[in-house]
Amino acid sequence: MTTVEVPHGSRSVVLRVAAVIAETIDARSLVFDVPEDQRAEFTYRPGQFLTLRIPSERTGSVARCYSLASSPFTDDHPKVTVKRTVDGYGSNWLCDNLKAGDEIEVLPPSGVFTPENLDADLLLFGAGSGITPVMSILKSALARGNGRVVLVYANRDPESVIFAAELRELADKHPQRLIVIHWLEQLQGLPTADGLATLVRPYAQFEAFLCGPKPFMDRVHDALAGLDVPRSRTHAEIFNSLAGDPFADRAPVEVSDAEAADAATVEVELDGEIHTLRWPRRQTLVDIMLAEGIDVPYSCQEGECGSCACTVLEGKVAMDNSEILDPEDIENGYILGCQAHPVTDRLRIQF
């Protein structure tokens, strides 16, 4: 049995695996029990993810992000779904080793791949295990919203379709609101931009959310661009393997008198509150917010997960690593708080 005696950082929690569900031949869902005193901390929004600390004999541990496939409105326990990938250490370890009753260290829910309005009409795209955050959004919208939901789900063959039975049940239960369109490589070949555009043309005014392998995401972006869907209505979830250890507490950055004197001033809007902070140029936005005790959204602090994405309303920043942001995102003012340093003396930023 896998047990974890103590968490490795102040933010992480040890959760017990309540159940392991075989979804397909190469995908497993992990259902977690959350202790009563941690329920508030593990409240999540549709489309968010958990970061799991996976043991490794070679490095001690690796950190991997897995989307919540459960809905906070319809499921009693949080559930992530893991699909094996070739040479994927984390996914294979979880599928091979975790059983009901085991324990694993987890960071609280994070991520910004979530609808602002569950009443909106939603156009959802998923490929393979990219269905996981999309499924959370789909179930939540049907449970708490009143808009229409269209899902385009790409897989190799019928046996690869994760949540196939649940999707059928939901489509039967909500025939006026939910349309599920399967794209199977075995029958239709790989998805193409033209083919996807033809399928979703009637729904081009919907809010779009997409998750899956990069080639699939590229085709979806091309299809939506061809339908003149603005990037402001297109939301993509991208996961990279985390190289660092987000479970370890970071030591506070010491600031010299000279650095403090040269600090910028930033107004940060978070959850409807505005915080005015001094921002030394060597520190990141996440650093200064944590130092002030502000519950800023973040996970990896490496610029790889997008949890700390926010928008610059006034001023200018420089970023150490911005690879997960598209050029269009950067042009529209999106930044990563864990990678941003002030360039101008005054800034306004909104989460």
From TrEMBL:
Cofactor(s) needed: FAD
Limits of the 2Fe-2S ferredoxin-type domain: 264-351
BP GO terms, sorted: cholesterol metabolic process; lipid catabolic process
Coiled-coil blocks: none
Enzyme nomenclature, EC number: 1.14.15.30
Keyword Metal-binding appears in the UniProt entry: yes
PROSITE patterns linked to this entry: 2FE2S_FER_1 (PS00197), 2FE2S_FER_2 (PS51085), FAD_FR (PS51384)
Stored Pfam families: FAD_binding_6 (PF00970), Fer2 (PF00111), NAD_binding_1 (PF00175)
Catalytic activity field: androsta-1,4-diene-3,17-dione + 2 reduced [2Fe-2S]-[ferredoxin] + O2 + 2 H(+) = 9alpha-hydroxyandrosta-1,4-diene-3,17-dione + 2 oxidized [2Fe-2S]-[ferredoxin] + H2O
CDD domains membership: fer2, PA_degradation_oxidoreductase_like
Transmembrane helix is among the record's keywords: no
Keywords: 2Fe-2S, Cholesterol metabolism, FAD, Flavoprotein, Iron, Iron-sulfur, Lipid degradation, Lipid metabolism, Metal-binding, Oxidoreductase, Steroid metabolism, Sterol metabolism
Residues in FAD-binding FR-type domain copies: 10-116
Molecular function in Gene Ontology: 2 iron, 2 sulfur cluster binding; 3-ketosteroid 9-alpha-monooxygenase activity; FAD binding; metal ion binding
Descriptive protein name: 3-ketosteroid-9-alpha-monooxygenase, ferredoxin reductase component
